[in-house]
Amino acid sequence: MSDLRASGLLVAPFEAPAERWSPGHRGVDLAHPSGADVLAPQDGVVSYVGFVVDRPLLVITHPDGLRSTLEPVETRLTPGSTVVQGDVVGTTSPGIAHCPPRTCVHWGVRRGDEYVDPLTLLGLVEPVVLLPDR
To answer: Which residues form the M23ase beta-sheet core domain (predicted)?
Structure first.
């Protein structure tokens, strides 16, 4: 992950909330030029295309049940479209300053209702495992 930070690509890391309702950063923000192609992080099927508040959003459901959310991403894909890792799935929406003063893509990943660090999917960080109190 330090390579991502050093390169300037990682604008904001994943920060798991203490509780589901607590503050946190439920994904990673990756520097990405406005209007640039956004690629599918893994194989999957587009399960949602639309807006949340004022941001265009794309959700891809992967074969293992994980769901990737990418925003702000404009796309011509429709729910049910199949994508392969590395396919262009859209472009970074111009005019949406998610990471002012630069533009970025927010990538969130969920397993059921639980948010997980997207960088674990790339093997860049180890998954966090919570153990019960003893």
So the answer is: 24-118
**Residue 2: enclosing H or E segment and its boundaries?**
helix 2-7
| DSSP symbol at 72 | S
Task: Provide the pLDDT confidence category of residue 32 given band limits of 50, 70 and 90.
Answer: confident
Nearest to 70 by CA among 102, 44, 38: 38
Token couple for 94: 């111009």
Q: What is the pTM of this model?
A: 0.83
Question: From the centroid of its chain, how far is CA 104?
Answer: 11
At the second CATH level, the architecture of 2-120 is Distorted Sandwich (2.70)
